[in-house]
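Example (one chain per record):
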Amino acid sequence: MGKQKVLLSFHKKLYVGDRIKHVNRVKWKLVHGIGQLDVYVICICPGADQLEIMHSAFLKQQYYRDHPPFVVGIASGYDDALVLLEKIVRNVLNETGDVLLKEYFLRDASGM
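Predicted structure:
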């Protein structure tokens, strides 16, 4: 049985950590379920929280095949993901004057 694809959605202005060198290759591997030991994704939370950081291995779980996350950032390592999340918060705050991250990314994705 081959690897199953995960129907991930990536934000059009995807944030990428400084240590990610080949973002398209990383995205392809994420979609095709190919393991990447040090890759973390920053996604929109399905619940009340704003964003979450998760290791790419979680995307192999059946839940994420059934409920693919909306990815707004990709980082190499948890520390890089924290730095990237800080950058996201700072950019959204500077652009909008608030930190409603989920609303910002979903509004931007819908073109409103």
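Caption: The longest strand covers residues 9-16.
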